[in-house]
Write a structure and sequence with these properties.
By secondary structure, this protein is mainly alpha-helical. The protein folds into two domains: 45 residues, no CATH class; 101 residues, Rossmann fold. It is 56% helix and 5% strand. The chain is built from six helices and two strands.
């Protein structure tokens, strides 16, 4: 049985490859891919980041969704949520974007904002978060109904 809220460290311990330290990024990426497949096969799971849009691209019941917003809105949201200054929020967001882009490029030779990787891309600068959630739930229900049972 899969554990809800399994931490990254605990997941790496469970999947550690003999003879390789989990801190090795390539090994870690391999372990994360394996863990994603375990969770995906179990069903009804939401996987965020770490290349899930590539790893599960051919997984029939997986839906790849990208939620984005203009950088200016992301900065304001982070300032409010984290209680930090604009400059720090800008730095955090840009660093996060760079890390995500590099990770996907390095381990999957993919561009993280490539629209072909996703079923749906939502811009929460144009639609509310509530509407985005509703659209995602609607898409999941519709695509789920189309799957062979």
């Amino acid at each position: 049985m899969l554990e809800a809220g399994l931490s990254r460290e605990r997941a790496l311990e469970k999947l550690e490859v003999k003879g390789f330290p989990a801190r090795d990024l390539a090994v870690e990426a391999q372990l994360i891919r394996r863990l994603m497949m375990v969770y995906a096969r179990a069903g009804e799971v939401v996987l965020v980041g770490r290349g899930a849009q590539v790893v599960l691209q051919d997984f029939a019941s997986a839906i790849q969704i990208r939620v984005q917003a203009p950088e200016s809105l992301r900065i304001l949201r982070m300032m409010k949520r984290m209680g930090i200054e604009r400059r720090e929020a800008e730095r955090c967001i840009r660093q996060s974007d760079r890390v995500r882009a590099r990770y996907l490029q390095r381990f999957y030779q993919a561009v993280w904002n490539d629209p072909d990787l996703y079923h749906l891309i939502l811009n929460t600068g144009r639609v509310s978060v509530d509407l985005a959630v509703s659209l995602i739930v609607q898409l999941a229900a519709q695509l789920g109904a189309e799957l062979p049972h």
